[in-house]
Amino acid sequence: GSPTTSIFLKPPGVISPGGSTTICCSCQCDNGNFVLYKNGHRLLTLELHGSRAEFSISNATQEDAGPYICHYLDGDTVLSRSETLDVMVQEFHLPKPVLSVLPGQEVVAGAHVVFHCTIAHSSASCFLYLEGQNKAELFSKEQGDFNLSHVHKGNEGRYSCQCYTKGASFKWSAVSETLDLVVK
């Protein structure tokens, strides 16, 4: 089988104008290159450092927003493609949320973990990010919590949350401080 290629933002989340982030292309591969595409246009070839390549965005503008994809190539042959990563650049209008986790940041495998994202805004919804993942989890509005039952080593990592409100337009918060979850 061909190697699986993934794409993610580090740190994850919506970026503020003037902010910075890094687009990471990653795969379980030995050699070759990544080619980064935006809106179907080839941006640049990235060299592998270990199993990943990175493209930094600093002083972000609307020009940086859009869909990105990594292609993993060996020579001229595309061995795999990542999912699409949608990069968003938006002003932050909401207060920065606070992420907490119960029972704590160190848990035993099989435990039940609850992430709580607190923001001083009554109608905000929030996303939970795990660094290295392209997909974000949506906190349910009713509970404001995200439950993880039967945690395993695969749930370990650096978590953060970011909130938004829907009105005539989306309004975003900054990203919370990060929490590292350790599964023993």
UniProtKB/TrEMBL annotation:
Keyword list, A-Z: Disulfide bond, Glycoprotein, Immunoglobulin domain, Repeat, Signal
Organism: Pampusana beccarii
Protein name, per record: IGSF1 protein
Gene: Igsf1
SMART domains, A to Z: IG
SUPFAM superfamilies documented for this protein: Immunoglobulin
Annotated PROSITE patterns: IG_LIKE (PS50835)
Upper classification of the organism: Eukaryota, Metazoa, Chordata, Craniata, Vertebrata
InterPro entries assigned: Ig-like_dom (IPR007110), Ig-like_dom_sf (IPR036179), Ig-like_fold (IPR013783), Ig-like_Receptors_ImmuneReg (IPR050412), Ig_sub (IPR003599), Immunoglobulin_dom (IPR013151)
Alphabetical GO biological process terms: cell surface receptor signaling pathway; immune response-regulating signaling pathway
Pfam families: ig
Ig-like domain segment(s): 3-86
Disulfide bond is among the record's keywords: yes
